[in-house]
Amino acid sequence: MITLLQAAERLQGPALAVQHYPLPGEAPATNALATVARVNLPAGQTFTQPPPVLDRDILTWIHRGAVRACAAPFPPEDLTENWLHAIGTEPNGASPTWQAMCDSTLIQFHILPETQEAAPEQSVRPAFAALEDGGFRILASGFAEDDPEDNPEATLTITDGAPLTLRSRSRLLHAALPQGEGAAYQTTPERALFLLVVEGQARIDGTTLQPQDAALITGEENLTVIASTQSVLLLVDTPLTPESLL
């Protein structure tokens, strides 16, 4: 099942509007992907999630510009285009902040953890060259087999080092596709796929997604996306019912 999603704008203070992608309440089961937001930050502006802070893995991908991430007790991190920042939060902890050092756009995903055993961490993944075949590249993962250090065979498909580590069986992937090219992804049962068209225009099974459109795909184990124009895509693969929600 494919559910098309369009961002809804919410004001956060007098000068900052944040676009949230509402995840449908009629989804077959509770999705570990809790929040998706696109934030346009003017230079000098700061973005933060309103309290209370919940137990999440927060992934922030920088689409354009440069941003400073501050998440106590960790040191600040300066991020630029196509960099990924991951921070694990604890219930009732300090709210992380992201301050634009120039006009910037970031896309943020909040993923519920499945285990409380791992302590929250902060990590950063710099930008790397796009894959030659234009396929999906794993940026963050909670699967040990996606780490080249843990699985030597993974270096066949992950050529730029390990993805950032998540506290759930989830993945964040990226694809940059020329016009007319496609990207395929295979998952397992009881998963939800969230596809966001960051730039360009793309098709899924005859359904066209415009720039900044998104789709929630459930009940499918195979996904093929065709770029109608040169496109940039982000894909999140999460369990429908993470153990932390049982």
Q: Describe it for me?
A:
By secondary structure, the chain is mainly β. The chain has one domain (2-245): Jelly Rolls (Sandwich), CATH 2.60.120.10. It has strands at 2-5, 8-11, 17-20, 33-41, 46-48, 57-64, 66-70, 77-80, 84-88, 97-100, 104-111, 122-125, 137-141, 164-165, 171-177, 182-186, 191-199, 202-204, 207-209, 214-218, 222-227, 231-239. Strands 1-20-17-22-15-13-14 form a 7-stranded mixed sheet, with no helix packed on it. The chain is globular and about 45 Å long. The model is unreliable at 150-159 (pLDDT under 50).
List the helices and strands and how they pair.
Elements: E1 2-5, E2 8-11, E3 17-20, E4 33-41, E5 46-48, E6 57-64, E7 66-70, E8 77-80, E9 84-88, E10 97-100, E11 104-111, E12 122-125, E13 137-141, E14 164-165, E15 171-177, E16 182-186, E17 191-199, E18 202-204, E19 207-209, E20 214-218, E21 222-227, E22 231-239
Parallel strand pairs: 13-14
Antiparallel strand pairs: 1-20, 2-3, 3-4, 4-11, 5-10, 6-9, 6-11, 7-8, 7-10, 9-12, 13-15, 15-22, 16-21, 17-20, 17-22, 18-19, 18-21
